[in-house]
Amino acid sequence: VCWELGQTQNPRKTFAPEILSGTTPPPPAASSLPGGSSSISIAAPRGQSVRHLSVLDDSRLVFSVGPRLLSIDRQGNLTALELPAPGEIVAIIVDHRRLILVHDNGVIATYDRNTLASLDQEARGSRIVTAGVLPWLGSIRLLLAGEEGPIQCVGCDDQLVTQYASVHRGIRQVAGTTDLVAAVSADRQR
């Protein structure tokens, strides 16, 4: 749902997922909504939905639908990005020069933020449920949480791994600041 700044009453556009079979999204089809806004349908395979909406740059947003990465620009043009799909995307992380996709099967794929050219692909060897970011010395480190074990804090540019242990397993969300790492438990109660 998109709003113009200062016009909070009605959305300007609504992009509605449509459950369709197939793997390629159709070209955007606009239809008029009350107030002059438009709606665009996005193909989503059965059981999958739009997730991980992130700002890529001043003119594009990216999001995932299962293992697919899609981009939408200010005009509402939808593009399925032709990237390898090793597993369902559990996190999209955008920093000043990279787009990082974290997949549920432990694959972390890094792309150039501007060109979307592949920079690196690493298999962590364990399933990942969620991922977050920890700011680190002008860069970032990834916080990776699986079904079991501690949260792993890994660098994009080094091999150092730090672990954050807890009695809680199956973390559902994780985030970090310069002096704190926080997570949401599997039952979402703690």
Task: Report on this structure.
The structure is a single chain. It contains no helices and 17 strands. It is mostly beta strands. Strands 4-5-6-7 form a four-stranded antiparallel beta sheet, with no helix packed on it. A hairpin with a 5-residue loop joins strand 10 and strand 11.
Q: Which properties best describe this structure?
A:
four-stranded antiparallel β-sheet; 0% helix; 17 strands; 190 residues; mainly beta
Task: Map the helices and strands.
Elements lengths: L12 E7 L10 E3 L5 E7 L5 E8 L2 E6 L2 E6 L4 E3 L8 E6 L3 E6 L3 E6 L5 E6 L6 E7 L2 E7 L5 E5 L5 E4 L8 E4 L4 E4 L6
Parallel strand pairs: 1-3
Antiparallel strand pairs: 2-3, 4-5, 5-6, 6-7, 8-9, 9-10, 10-11, 12-13, 13-14, 14-15, 16-17
Query: Element order, helices and strands?
Result: EEEEEEEEEEEEEEEEE
Counting DSSP E segments of at least 2 residues, the number of strands comes to: 17
Order of strands, main sheet, comes to 4-5-6-7
- Uncertain residue ranges: 19-41
Mean pLDDT: 81
- Into which percent range does the helicity of residues fall? under 10%
Measured distance between first and last alpha carbons: 29 Å
Strand content: over 45%
Work out the radius of gyration.
18 Å
The count of helical stretches stands at 0
Overall 3D form: globular
Task: Assign the structural class, choosing from mainly alpha, mainly beta, alpha/beta, alpha+beta, or little secondary structure.
Answer: mainly beta
Note the main sheet: 4 strands, antiparallel
Provide a compact summary of the structure.
With 190 residues, the protein is mostly beta strands.
